[in-house]
Amino acid sequence: MASNPIVNIFKLKELRNRLFFTFIILAVFRLGGVLTVPGIDASVLLQYFDSLASQNKNQFASYMDFFVGGAFSHFSVFMLGVMPYISTQIILQLALIIFPSLKRIVQEDGGQRKVAAWTRVGTVIVCLIQSFAVTVYADSIPGAWSGTIQMKLLAMLTVTTGTMITIWLGDQITAHGIGNGVSMLLFAGIVARLPSAVLDLSNKVSNNEINIVFVIVVLIMFIGIIGLVIFEERGERQIKVTYAKRVVGRKMYGGQNTYLPFKINPSNVIPVIFASSFLTFPLQIISSIGSNQNSARWVGKLSAFLNPAGWWYNILMVILIVFFAYFYTQVTMNPIEIAKSIRENGGSIPAAGSKPEEYLQRVLNRLVLPGSLFLAAIAVLPTVIQNLFGFPQSISMLMGGTSLIIMIGVDLDTMSQVEALLKMHHQDGLTKKGKIRSRNL
User: What's the confidence (pLDDT) of residue 173?
Assistant: First the structure.
């Protein structure tokens, strides 16, 4: 009789400890999400954001809250989450492409440690800029705080420290828990918004503000989209690789055929996270400045232009997702390096002929474009749902978009790690055949 894989998860000491450790870190992360920055009046904040919600003017705050589990509207110590860290990673990755000298430094011994140190320093700088924007935003809320220079410096220091602690918590999950720490914290922030989003939707339905038929239609769409995202995440193109026989001493090696798997979406949720983080930085700065009544007219226009519920914002999101999909794929899956590695190990790609680099590049281009366009279509879905069906932003962002892609991607990656640990201890996997299968396209 086959054992229950769910029971096996808690029977294995290593896996059980990793899960409990992850839950504890996530609990600490959620606790930091409700600890208000010193000097801020939480009751005034609650009244302010409730009034914005009633007027449907809290688009920016709702967008930010989805990545930090409501910490932004609470002005908590973790209100910026891991977004500054991701923004810094984007800047450094672009710098490595633009400046070859930096890339050579990374390839040297200890190069990765240098990049990690640069990322930490850059994150502090980005945090200070964004935390200053937060103080400007707080100044626009009547009675929220005193707004003195001392209080602003304290708030900037508190928010920056909170972000660095958040990154450290993510590193602990990666090292001692289950899943990628940064992605797991994003996942936790999104999931934390589920109860309030569902409550908001139920109130809209009970008050006859949204037709129940629309809710059913969108729920059916939601289930179908989940299936499509999973199919896209697991779809892959298998390229046949043939290795010639080699004689080393008295032993013969090689002489076998294998497959090089190229996922239809090689970068997973990275383009969506990068695009969201890339837009969040200017969005926060402009929205904070635009909240001041004395701000220039162009600032208000630019703030409206970058409204997360607007079409122009979503057009920029599509462009950035496609760009980062190609960019990240070229960085992590360089066709020249892959072909060189296969050739050095005595392998060849029969379908590629004498130009494996060009063949691999052509295959990647054909995979990345539809995969990135699919991600982009899912990312702009909340705007479509919100405008067509009149859904509140809090629930429409869960029906599609960045949050849905992140949730599914992180969930699949976590399941893969649990699966690997179960198989390592000779236990049944989470699926009947003992592995989470990919679809060969």
Answer: 92
In this structure, which long-range contacts are made by residues 140-149, counting pairs with CB atoms below 8 Å and at least 24 apart in sequence?
Answer: 140/288, 140/291, 140/292, 140/293, 141/44, 141/45, 141/48, 142/44, 142/48, 143/41, 143/44, 144/40, 144/41, 144/44, 144/45, 144/48, 144/75, 145/39, 145/40, 145/41, 146/39
Supply φ then ψ for residue 214, to 5 degrees: -65, -40
Instruction: For residues 192 and 66, give the distance between their C-alpha atoms in angstroms, rounded to a whole number.
Output: 8
Which pLDDT score, from 0 to 100, does residue 125 have?
A: 92
Q: Give me the count of residues in the chain.
A: 441
Residues of the chain with pLDDT under 50: 1, 433-438
**Whole-angstrom Cα distance, residue 51 to residue 56?**
9
Phi and psi (nearest 5°) for 12? -75, 120
Dist. CA 108–CA 103, nearest whole Å = 9
Task: State the greatest distance between any 2 C-alpha atoms of the chain, in Å, as a whole number.
Answer: 83
- Determine phi and psi for 75, rounding to 5 degrees: 50, 50
303-308 long-range contacts (CB < 8 A, ≥24 apart) are 306/279, 306/282, 307/59, 307/60, 308/59, 308/60, 308/62, 308/63, 308/283, 308/393
Instruction: Give the model's pLDDT for residue 161.
Output: 94
Query: CA nearest 44: which of 159, 145, 149?
Result: 145
Alpha carbon 59 to its chain centroid, in Å, reads 20
For the full predicted model, state whether its pTM sits above 0.70: yes
Task: For residues 186 and 289, give the distance between their C-alpha atoms in angstroms, rounded to a whole number.
Answer: 26
Check if the beta carbon of residue 399 is closer than 8 Å to that of residue 391.
yes
Identity of residue 162: G
Residue 180 and residue 413 in contact, taking contact as beta carbons nearer than 8 Å = yes
Rounded Cα distance between 102 and 421, Å, is 37
CB 184 within 8 A of CB 22: yes
Question: In this structure, what token pair is assigned to residue 9?
Answer: 């998860």
53 C-beta neighbours (distance < 10 Å), count: 17
Instruction: Please give the pLDDT value at position 304.
Output: 63
pLDDT of res. 437: 47
CA 322 to chain CA centroid, nearest Å: 15
Phi then psi dihedrals of residue 36, to 5 deg:
-70, 145
CB distance 159 to 131 below 8 Å: yes
